Amino acid sequence: MPADLTKPPGVAAKPAAGASGAAAERLAGSAAQHDSPTGGPMASAGDGGAAERERLTLIRSARFRAERERGWRRLEQLVTLCESRGPRALSFADARELAELYRQAATSLSVAREISLDRSLLNYLEALTARAYLAVYAPQESLGGLFSRFFRQRAPQAMRALAPFILAGLATLLLGTGVGYALFLENEAWYDVLVPRGPGDPRGPDATREDLLSVIYDEGDRTSPLDRLGAFAAYLFSHNTRIAIFAFSLGAFACLPTFLLVFYQGLFFGAFVALHVDRGVGIDIAGWLSVHGVTELSAIFVAAGAGYAMGYAVLFPGQRRRADALFDVGRDAVTVAIVAGLMLLVAAILEGFFRQLVQDTGVRLAIGWGVGALWLAWFAFGGRRA
């Protein structure tokens, strides 16, 4: 905001209080005489005429500001209060005054544009009316209200809207799992191709039943429990978050990158499960994976579904432009991607704490599939009334 609204650029001094209107009228009258055919010589063409027009514009701006400045300053005070402390800081009288002063400022801006006042005044009025518009008309909702509306309405509604694409992501993951399972049963050497192993990892084609059980029931690792929990959580959150981000963001490229990424995850998972089933520990690995895997794998194909939705909008925009089709589906797709990120966070907690602290297979299965049932109930029934 200009330091002194009543002293626009080009005006050397402000008239004394009570005389500003009269002084401005005398100046305007003198200027009119110069431009009048009978009032005196015409202003010279070129720089002299432009300077005279600029002087008249500044005089009109000074009068315009002097008549309305008090309301503008009051409006700015109310808007600043609303921005800093929220609309609840306003009393009922202040709220009514805010609305009235906003309408007056909008009218002043319209008049200022019509009579071509100086640019600094127009800039100030445009900024002030924009701020006042947000204070008067923008949705006023607390941060807690936004989170509540997201979880109660927005997220489950977006999940249902993109349900066909999410099911396509699930089908891609299951297809990859079936192929990976079949490849391992055909030749165990496929395991090392499809499943990367870290140093000292006993799980592989040469692993025995006892080797696998030692990992499943944490018999071979005697390090600090807190160290194991932190390492598990950090690894899961970083690795699978990257997978979900890529599955979502690459979907716009005609869906193909998302399909390949999720299909490979299925190959990995299928070969991993096939190794344990072949060694006779299928139920044990089901419990070991269920604690976090139900939520983790669901997050991956949910993110893939959001990517597929964007890719479909690009491939089949219908009567719309591709950019418009992508924009229309983008809101639901981004919401679903946020849900996938939330699911990965929950999976990291389950991975880092419950999987290693709970050793009973039945309890592991109950935790994993119970959490999965809660996710499904939220997606299916949340936000129905809205």
H-E string: HHHHHHHHHHHHH
- Portion of residues in beta strands equals under 5%
How far is it from the N-terminal to the C-terminal residue, by CA? 43 Å
Query: How much is the radius of gyration in Å?
Result: 34 Å
Percent helix range: over 70%
**What is the overall silhouette?**
elongated
How many individual β-strands?
A: 0
Mean pLDDT score, rounded? 81
> Counting H and I runs of at least 4 residues, what is the number of helices?
13
Q: Tell me about the biggest sheet?
A: none
Summing up helix and strand content along with how strands pair, one would put the structural category as: mainly alpha
Low-confidence segments: 1-45, 224-230
Tell me what you see in this structure.
This protein is mostly helical. The protein has helices at residues 20-35, 47-85, 92-114, 119-137, 143-161, 163-186, 190-194, 209-216, 225-249, 256-278, 282-315, 322-357, 361-381. The chain is built from 13 helices and no strands. Mean pLDDT is 81; it is low at 1-45 and 224-230.
Topology:
Elements: H1 20-35, H2 47-85, H3 92-114, H4 119-137, H5 143-161, H6 163-186, H7 190-194, H8 209-216, H9 225-249, H10 256-278, H11 282-315, H12 322-357, H13 361-381
Helix pairs in contact: 1-2, 2-3, 2-4, 3-4, 5-12, 5-13, 6-10, 6-11, 9-10, 9-11, 9-12, 10-11, 11-12, 11-13
